[in-house]
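Final report, Chapter 2: Outcomes

The project's central promise was a pipeline that accepts a single protein chain and returns its three-dimensional structure in a standardized token representation, suitable for archiving and comparison. That pipeline is now operational. To close this chapter, we reproduce one record exactly as it appears in the project archive, with the input sequence first and the structure output second.
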Amino acid sequence: MSNKINKFINYKDYNLSINSQKVKKNDIFFAIQGTKDSGNNYINEAIKKKSSVIVSDKKITNYKSVRVKNVRKFLAKICSLKYFNKPKNIIAVTGTNGKSSVAHYHYQILKLNNISSSSIGTLGIFYNNNYKKTDLTTPDVVTLHKELNYLKKIKVDNVCIEASSHGLNQERLSEINFKAAIFTNFTQDHLDYHKTLNKYLKAKLYLFTHLLNNRSFAITDSDIPEYAKIKKICKKRKIKVLSFGKFGNTIKLIFHKYSSQYQIIKINFLGKIYQLKINLIGNFQIKNLFSSMISANLILNNTDKIINIISKLKAPKGRMEIISTKKSKFVIVDYAHTPDALKKSLLTLKEQFKKKIDVVFGCGGDRDKNKRYKMGIIAARFADKIYLTNDNPRSENPMSIIRQIRKGCSNSTVILDRKSAIKTAIQRLSSSGILLIAGKGHENYQIIGKKRKKFSDQKTAKLYLN
């Protein structure tokens, strides 16, 4: 494959570019097909900027070019050859919800055991005691291979990557040797991109059907409906399945109960019985924790070392994050932005704290519209007071989004300005209640129209709590 470019230049000596605006002299430009536009429309711009070679799926005359059937796959192959040095143990985690938590717990478990590790995903890139911001859950293929190459250079050999359905569908994770892949759960999301749930699931399962090899492991929840399908795929491809849950073959949950802000669990972890007191909110975080315990054990091969540091783990930013319990005002920020995530967050808070739950949330514009009414229904069913507000309306009319949500929860209060909505919800919050601020989690911005302004649910909540 690389010989197609090598007949013109040694690709290892040149930068790879997928954005015509960022092309510099002698870069190799890959004209990839985007969701709304094609790189083929920007070939002339790349030529004007003196790109060394154009890679496209169409024939280009009078310029150095390579024609391939699938530009994305070809790019992934070139990236793997150019940035061939990579960490030894790379683990991918996919699923609708929980990816960030699993990746971050995996990173923390290894770090607390003095093993150099990294997590790459929605929250950014964490490595050792450093942090680097990213724009996508799964970085573009060039950035991802570059970062993995850099991590190996600084002797980080253990990485957990969030594998989004977009990233998998667009071959961003192709040509990477994965030690294991984790599947968390599957519910409705991203139908604006995938169109159907079947296509969305197929994109997630691509990790298991194409990217793992027979030396890899699959880690998943034995209690989810997709377990049988994943098990069947893995059996056919001779991939070993490590499971957790009530019927897990690696971690079996024996007992679970809540104790205020803590959760008490008893588990069988590879034949050893442990009882743990965990400082995490939400029973779904226990499942996320199990995923990362199993993945970390593939590196440590010592269950005791994992158990010994569990009490030190912290929830990632914006994932069931406690903002304050001062002055009888209990406020939590969570990224819940899908119907299933919102339902789980509301239900687990009720179950764990036995209090009334108020919620502030909205839905993103230019995204899956089908989930708006469903999230309204869920809020009406499980929340006591509902405040509908802006999330990231983007180019959509904010009130149009609210009206669609409100069809499911007519008893809600509408306050478009998110800052005012949070302020009002905190002021009206009773001492016997909890306020859940849902949808944006870790995000420190808000997109309204074409403007991206600084905004943080955490900072806003703290402002009015004080």
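Archive annotation: The first strand starts at residue 16 and ends at 17.
This record, like all others produced under the grant, will remain available to the consortium after the project formally closes.
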